[in-house]
Amino acid sequence: MKYENLVPIIGTILNMEDSDYFKQMVTLRVENGVVNFMVSSETLVVECRQLEPGMRVAAFYDSSLAVPMIFPLQYQAQMITVLERNEQIALDYFNGALLAQDNSLQLNIAEETRIETLNGQRFSCCIGGRTLLVYYTATTRSIPPQTTPGKIVVMC
To answer: Could you report the per-residue pLDDT of 94-111, keeping only the tens digit for each?
Structure first.
């Protein structure tokens, strides 16, 4: 999977309906209305969490794939992660200094920062020079913004 093509949409799960061929249609309430995501056996759910209505999630779609011109918008979910209240995410390549490739975020790792793999296993190697899924709540107003993440998932 090419992580650089993934774009997140953050919202709250309103409804989940079974669809054809082992797929589910997940409806998210987002800032501007609703968005539908098709979730299949190929969709990566971070930490294998069971999705339920009422959960706040970030659903990622591949921006290089065609999207049907229907309303409400409907995407194929490539990856979904559950978010806590006020939690934000960033998915990007971070260099050895833990600066995002697009200079949008600088990471400051604290002792409390959980660093793990996609399946929830502890990751104890160097995280610089990798694609990371970063969970955080606040940033500084500096350029680039800095944050001390609560959790980092290393996209191996």
So the answer is: 999 999 999 999 999 999
Report, as an integer, the average pLDDT of 44-55.
93
**Rounded to 5 degrees, what angle do the CA atoms 70, 4, 113 make?**
115
Q: Rounded distance, CA 119 to CA 18, Å? A: 25
- Taking alpha carbons only, the member of 140, 26, 10 closest to residue 84 is 10
pLDDT at 119 > cutoff 90:
no
Q: What is the pLDDT of residue 69?
A: 79
Q: At 39, is the secondary structure helix, strand, or coil?
A: strand
Report which of 127, 130, 88 is spatially closest to residue 3, judged by C-alpha positions. Answer: 130
pLDDT at 73 (0 to 100): 83
**Alpha-carbon distances, residue 46 vs 17, 84, 150 (angstroms):** 20, 14, 15
Distance of CA 24 to the CA centre of its chain: 19
DSSP run (H or E) holding 138? none
DSSP secondary structure letters along 79-136 = EEEE--TT-EEEEEEE-TT-BBTTSS-EE---TT-EEEETTS-B--S--TTEEEEEEE
